[in-house]
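Look over what follows to help learners.
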Amino acid sequence: MAEKNGKIMSAKEAISRFVHDGDQLVIGNYTVGSCAELVYEVVRQQRKGFTLYSQSGIFDVEVLVGAGCVEKLVTTYVMRAGGRKGGSAVERALNAGTLQMEDYTNFDYNARLVAGMHGLTFTQVLEGVIETDLFRKRSFMGEDKFRVITCPYTGKTLLTVPAANPDVCIVHVQRSDKFGNAQYWGALGSVAAAALASKRIIVSCEEIVEHDIIQSSPHLTILPAYRVNAVVEVPWGAHPTEVLGYYDRDASMYGLFMKADSTAEGLTAWMDEWVFGCENRSTYIDRYVGKFGSAVLNNIRAKPFYSAPANYGAAFTSRWDREGLEIFMGLTLPEMEAISKERGKYYD
């Protein structure tokens, strides 16, 4: 990728380069604003054999399972409409024996990702779950789903879960710069931990902005550039789910999907039209507007509601004077970087 473009690439290129058959794949988004276009592209490229991590899988997990991409699922909640008789892709796959699933509480699922994010191999969780079927019933993880150990300090019995370090995370955010400094706001859940626990990260965003915009709001940056492998600019990239500050959930389209997902044939037809039948998100939106009109999308666009600006100014009583010069050498930051590059001491 050319340096001037940073890590910007299409969804097709990002998935092709960084998502492989048999990967442990985590959907970074939690409850709101799923990475729909990245999920669709995984399906278009017919990736297989995933162990999929998802904290709140309804729409996105259904698509991946329905497309036959997933062999094992680690989750806290999925749509199992119709109970054991079926009515969702996950339930049909469980009944057919083509999917194995491990079920955790929200706390324990998050604990695994947080442990992975911090480089731990396991972490303690609340021992009350020992009294539930979440502890007793094991699938593909067997004894490694939970382990009971003795505290070396107190002798107390502790319940632990293993750290999770998925191979790749796909996640949708509001904005990023071309380098991969990704910014997200709203209900965070496990979004940051899911990404930072992973070995590779693909970020899709509503818009790519200049780096100085990222610098002006540092508190919104949940993923630093050096951890991100690819940045994909995808307006409406989470549709039909919502993105705070951009658009609301499209209840009509969501309902259309839910109806289709009630049967295997219905889901196949839906994916033929909206996933395989659309080369990318731009084609998807064109098809949507052609069928339903632009008024529906306009009606779910977010109304402006801005937070008060925060003052990040300083007195500049540091190594930089008021003109932006380093006080000992009298050089600007770009000049210092240029010198470092010349001496082979600069690392981006």
